[in-house]
Amino acid sequence: MRIRQAGVAVIDRLRTPTLDTDLDVSHTLTEADVHLAVEVLTPLATRCGDDLTAFLTEIATDADVDALDPRAQAVTLLTLHAAKGLEFPVVFIVGCEDGLLPLRMPGRDGGPADEAAEAAAIAEERRLFFVGLTRAQDRLYVSHVQRRFWRGAERHMAPSRFFDAIDPRLFDNRGDLAPRRPRDQQLRLL
Question: Which of 18-27, 29-38, 70-79, 162-171 has the highest mean pLDDT?
Fold first, then answer.
């Protein structure tokens, strides 16, 4: 396997001291990192065979997500960015609150360049959100909260503005059906 040979070569390189500090990545790359990379890339390399161009293309297009085994009986946690081209029987999209989806970054000065960049980012996040919605084969759950501990304080959260483009009749609102437990009976995870 060429991936394993490349991993051995990289580990040998890490163990060899060098005078050229620009090429010395030993302070950031560990042998454990190399072993993990070899483990992750081996199935992809096997699938691509001797076609280096196909292998590099697969890496450039996030093939690690595309290499998921659909027969696996497991929960898969993905970002919206990584969901392209995949479908799942049940999809949960959580955190659909304005400020999280689309993400609003604090500290921008609001100048024209920031406004243009923010508009482009919002358009891209809207596209990703709708791609995420289409990943569900049978059931789709989208959720948002009214209050969230976020950026050091408990804050009121409005639903994502992306919901405005969806016909409200398509939603089955279940948030008001279950009464909330009193806070003193709420179970803590940690």
Answer: 162-171
Per the document, the length of the chain is: 190
Q: Which domains, and CATH codes, for the chain?
A: 1-67 (no CATH), 70-173 (3.40.50.300)
* Residue with the larger pLDDT of the pair 105 and 41: 41
Average pLDDT over residues 113-141: 86
Cα angle: 77, vertex 78, 80; to 5 degrees? 145
**Long-range contacts of the stretch 132-137 (C-beta < 8 A, 24+):** 132/80, 132/83, 132/91, 132/93, 133/91, 133/93, 135/83, 135/86, 135/87, 135/88, 135/91, 136/87, 136/88, 136/89, 136/90, 136/91, 137/87, 137/88, 137/89
User: Alpha carbon 123 to chain centroid distance?
Assistant: 18
* pTM reported for the whole predicted model: 0.54
Mean pLDDT value across the chain = 77
CA distance 109 to 123: 20
**Helices 52-60/31-48 angle, 10° precision:** 120
